[in-house]
Specification:
globular; alpha+beta
Length: 278
């Protein structure tokens, strides 16, 4: 059986069991939005502050595309995505679950000493600890530990072993800590007329919001995602002069919240401008 058919069959089985699924491409990331949804041209996913779903016929908008509708999963609109899929993912929050992603030996040792026993799934470098119940997702809640629940996705790596336990307070408390304050970075906005000549102001606002969302939802290759997002924003609006320092600050803040340094943000922005000849 080909990888395409294997991934599709797995997705259909999981959906039938109530797990909202979506395909992942190489790099364990969702497929890019379709042309009609690129940079939120469609107006953004319908429920950005809830648990989805996306109503686009293609697997757009990351975690919000996850669905249990087998007719959608097996549709022609999703066929090309399955052909290029490297893995199957699911939306834990949509299934009433929380995944504690322990990414190294130290994180696993902490989990075994601190967390109540529950179902565990081996990963490439660690373990997923699954609990019944949902909570806000967050990365880096402690060294090597991410929380994946609402507005997030997790790779399907098998059913795991053990009995699911209720989400404990010790896990909920992990997201209660105040996040680090990003370092303010001042980058002069590109010189121009201050107006987006080829798009409406609403399009610019949606584009910035989508760019911030893309950085915020990145789970791997953060450096590359930040650079690619900066490049995409500048390629669309860098010559208009419509970008303001506030827009740039929003992008930098999103990147620093994911762990990027102020220096890397500045370098990525500068490299993107240089590549585009700005």
């Amino acid at each position: 059986m080909t990888a395409t058919r294997t991934h599709l069959r797995t997705a259909l089985q999981l959906a039938a069991e109530g797990l909202p699924v979506l395909p992942l491409r190489k790099g364990k990331v969702p497929f890019a939005n379709c042309p009609g949804c690129l940079y939120s041209a469609c107006g953004g996913r319908p429920n950005m502050k809830t648990s989805g779903p996306c109503t686009c016929p293609a697997p757009c908008h990351g975690w919000a595309a996850a669905t249990t509708d087998t007719s959608v999963i097996a549709s022609l609109a999703w066929a090309s995505a399955w052909q290029g899929a490297a893995a199957v993912a699911y939306h834990p929050g949509g299934a009433g679950l929380t995944v504690v992603d322990c990414d190294n030996a130290h994180a696993m040792a902490w989990a075994r000493e601190t967390l109540p026993a529950t179902r565990t799934v081996p990963t490439t470098r660690g373990e997923h600890w699954l609990y019944l119940g949902t909570m806000p997702s967050a990365n880096g809640v402690r060294p090597g530990v991410d929380i994946k629940s609402t507005m997030a996705y997790a790779r399907w790596l098998g059913p795991g072993t053990g009995t699911l336990a209720a989400l404990p307070d010790v896990v909920r408390a992990l997201t209660a800590a105040k996040p680090a304050t990003p370092i303010p970075v001042r980058i002069p906005a590109p010189v121009g007329g201050g107006e987006c000549r080829h798009r409406t102001p609403a399009y610019l606002e949606r584009g910035i919001a989508m760019a911030v969302q893309r950085i915020t939802e990145a789970r791997t290759t953060i450096h590359a995602t930040v650079y690619g997002t900066f490049l995409a924003v500048l390629s669309t609006h860098g010559r208009c002069g419509c970008l303001t320092e506030d827009h740039i600050a929003r992008l930098f803040t999103a990147a620093q919240t994911k762990g990027e340094t102020a220096r890397h943000c500045t370098d990525a922005w500068t490299n993107a401008r240089t590549r585009l000849g700005l």
